[in-house]
Batch of 3 targets.
Target 1
Amino acid sequence: MMARPVPGCHVDALFGHIVTMHGTRPWGRVLDAGTGRASLQFVMGLQTESWTAVTGDDGEERYLARELGAPARPGDRVLTGHWRDATLLQGQVFDVVLADYLLGAVDRVDPYFQEQLLERLRQHVSGRLYLVGLEPLPDRADGEGPAALRELMRLADVTRLLAGERLYREFPLEWVQRSLVRAGFHVVNATVFPIVYRTAAVDRQLAGCRDRLAHVDAPTRAALEARAVRLAATARDAARAGGIRMGSDYVVTAEPTA
Ligand SMILES: C[S@@+](CC[C@H](N)C(=O)[O-])C[C@H]1O[C@@H](n2cnc3c(N)ncnc32)[C@H](O)[C@@H]1O
């Protein structure tokens, strides 16, 4: 399962913003172009005519069927495929396309495809695109707690590489807005949501490190795990005392240009 890169501390705010932006428009046919538990749960709760959810991950379809009972209605479907494949949903158009943390995950699934992805999605949007993304994290964070969390996230990337995985590559809002225009959209709205990390987010980072270190030789595992545990303890203290403010998410609302 490919999880959202950001702990769901304000998932509701991001989806709530999309609902507000959508107003009284009908949802019609919806495409969840980079699906996962959170976005599909959101889409399944909307008054849609039908929905299609796409994942590039082999195990995700089974996971979503098990966790959400998806798809529940005859016209709905979860598809496994890659957007680079021109035959995927060829000629099919949707009233609403949701790209929820899809952009940042492309490097893990299909590196260097990000710019083409937006052009590819353009073919499928008749009404609106809602793009949720994460600003690239700052290289350094000020203060003991934020610095420990940032270091723990860096260590998490190290464990991904050691486990033979590719890393997420996030794109700044400014890049997204420029690329959307180039891909044939106009931006209706762009809203930034500062992130506050809580203890659950710290625990998830540590758990992810531990899972991936299971594939690594014992001495390396012991050293890296000890470091991860120390960093998590410092970060957890700060998260408990009011949360750690670092980075931001954004939601871009865009429509095809005529
Ligand atoms: C980080 S997850 C998205 C999070 C998800 N929306 C949620 O609610 O948890 C990224 C999703 O995009 C998919 N994905 C990434 N690159 C893709 C590509 N090139 N083609 C198709 N799916 C892709 C992944 O397989 C995964 O299903």
Note: The chain has a mean pLDDT of 95.
Target 2
Amino acid sequence: MKYLLNTYARYPVEFEKGSGSRLYDVHGDEYLDFLSGIAVTSFGHRHKIITEAAEEQLKKLWHVSNLFESSPQNQLAQKLVQASGLNSVFFSNSGTEANEAAIKFARKWGGERKEIIVTTGSFHGRTMGSLSATGQKNLWKGFSPLLAGFSFANFNNIESVLRNINNNTCAIMVEPIQGESGVIVPDDDYLIKLRKIADRHNLLLILDEVQTGMGRTGKLFAHQWYNIKPDIMTLAKGIANGLPLGATICSENVSQVIRPGDHGSTFGANPVAIAAANKVFDLINGELLAKIIYLGDLIRKSIIEWNLPVIKDVRGKGLMIGIELNIPQAKTIVKNLLKRKIIVGSSGDRIIRLLPPFIIDENDTGYFIKEFYNELNNIK
Ligand SMILES: Cc1ncc(COP(=O)(O)O)c(C=O)c1O
């Protein structure tokens, strides 16, 4: 990889083809994909309906810019607005851009108030605004000065949020479940309390659902587990099953302060990505969400029942699963599973992350559980 900038520690495997929950490397070997390109290809590889929609659009029109009307873009926006109970959508190309837009919109809405309360351990993206909102100091190293206007509260700690509120605060921004820092699920009343605090202090509640959204936790949006509504929600990752698309969905109050020229993106809402996303949205229904919950519970329960000393905690919601180890061997286990032709992820040295596609069945799950068990027994 001599010509690529050294930003990734890559595994020595190259995939050439995908089909459903399986990937095939350049030697033709088959792998079970329990990572979905980090929560992106939720409907698996080359899903028939999504692929056909993207192919059809590819043959018609690739790009015209956002200077012109687009019915498919409007249709997707309408679906997202109706499903979220919010008011309008800005489309971009990635999670970090969706969050950049959220930060800008919150600041515009806030008027003189520009500060956003974010949380320790959060991950909001790699561009300067989102990075400045990200509560992981190791990711900041070498890149300061960061953007001003973020104050950090401890995640899952209401008192800490209250302590951070001042006359300059305009918003609170959190992930419903922290994904990148190891699938950290807050208390059941955390988002409910944040909503109340935001209302009481006239602040926006911004939910970064880039990873938790689009069905991943067993609800279309993770905040729907708690019967609350954010003022701004960001989406990306699974929204177009692998084509680049981000969305920043805004309440009426926020929408009202945004004017033509306030924000934009050349590639945002690419027609091919929008065509795929319209199908992804249509494919998420009650039956699928119930399956996501069922299979997620099944995987977690099976792992907990082993009662292995190497496992400290098993957590998550739906098919967003984190397994915390008592030993710093997560990366070794990921590599060993790759040798067993199973793809999973890790977070730091101690957490294994599972983000399987929604199309897996009980056979896939059973196979994964058996191989994972063998691997964990091997490692101790
Ligand atoms: C919660 C969350 N927000 C934002 C991002 C950034 O998304 P992207 O890599 O598409 O910029 C991620 C990526 O992992 C994420 O998990």
Note: The pocket of pyridoxal-5'-phosphate is lined by residues 94-96, 99, 123-125, 175, 179-180, 208, 210-211, 236 (CB under 6 Å).
Target 3
Amino acid sequence: MWKTREIQNFVLSIIFPQFCLQCGKETNMTNLCPDCFATIEILEYWFCPVCGKRLADKGVCNNCVSKTNLIGIFSASPYIDPLVKKIIGYLKYEPYLKDLSKTLADLIITHFSLLNNDNVNRILQNSILVPVPSTKDRIRIRNFNQAEEIAKELSTMLNIPLANNVLFKIKPTPTQVGLPLWQRKQNIKNAFAANSENLRKTKSKKILLVDDVFTTGATMEECAKTLKRAGVREIWAITAAREF
Ligand SMILES: [Zn+2]
Ligand SMILES: [Zn+2]
């Protein structure tokens, strides 16, 4: 049986055929053909969110436990992969191809399947997905928050609830591109606020923070710190790509 969404996509693909952003072949609604998707490197390991050390198992390396509010991070692909960069660029900047959030969610799911499944399943259990928030100004330009779009796709694929009303960005920040870590940290300090009442309603003590790219970790850390102060015990990060 076809799901409503598949029927919608099928009808739309007849009216508005989609072309692969990489090779130009006609493809489905996600703007990337399966052949080009298969060329993307998907990471088979964990890494420390603080020092970047490759880890065989989950979490943070022993030296960095006291330096982070995260229990660990999942990052599907290296951002240095030109196609990954292209996908994220087309989603975040013009032409704002919103469907590419599904491609990024597919990368994350494939990454999960390449890791130790028992560990991953245990981490995903009883969790909720929380997108890294964007300010209203940014959302107005793009019409959507890319982190939330990726989180929505993951929520559907993994059957994990999504909460977009527990963490908010309360201070606009200048673009972080090209800035050193200390400056990023300073810019993002106190930029987020948690809604304790909505958090209580979710009844979850475990949050999976979702974003498109993990660069220096300054944004993720600030989000995690804010949620921890609001009483969340376990905070994980999930991103489609990692830069360092
Ligand atoms: Zn292609
Ligand atoms: Zn480390």
Note: The longest helix spans residues 100-114.
